[in-house]
Design a protein that fits this description.
By secondary structure, the chain is mainly alpha-helical. Helix content is 36%, strand content 4%. Strands 1-2 form a two-stranded parallel ribbon. The chain binds a DNA duplex (13 and 13 nucleotides) through α2, α3 and β2.
Length: 110
DNA sequence: AGATTGACTAACC
DNA sequence: AGGTTAGCCAATC
């Protein structure tokens, strides 16, 4: 695989939509999928997991629909999510006891 | 060109 | 309530 490949059209759209999420808020893979006009949140995850613009695109503001953290930096456990959670807290997002984002932080594309 | 994969989701058992 | 199946779609093998 080539990590320095140019972003595809689809990926560019995903990144653009991700940048639209205001600081201190989060969105879901599903919301992005709908916003981009496709029905596969998995495709969104694919684009973000290969995110060539790691901290430049706020991919940490994208979580699963159940408000659990999905993944980060290509991983779905341990330090990956710890880092993601920390970034969100720094932006003002709070978490529940179960490690979920508080629903008040959900952002909706209009 | 075809098969597999995956930072997902919803439905089913 | 928790594990499995099925549907989804772009990238990668």
């Amino acid at each position: 695989m080539d990590p320095n490949r140019p972003p595809t059209n689809f990926e560019s759209r995903v990144f653009e939509a991700t940048c639209l999420i205001p600081k201190g808020k989060v969105s879901t893979y599903g919301e992005l999928a709908v916003f981009l006009g496709c029905q596969s949140a998995q495709a969104i995850g694919q684009a973000l997991k290969r995110n060539p613009f790691a901290p430049e695109v706020p991919c940490h503001r994208v979580v699963k629909t159940d408000l659990r953290l999905g993944g980060f930096h290509g991983g779905t456990e341990g330090p990956y999510l710890a880092k993601k959670r920390n970034l969100l807290v720094e932006e003002g997002v709070s978490f529940g006891d179960d490690g979920r984002v508080n629903p008040e932080h959900c952002h909706r594309f209009c």
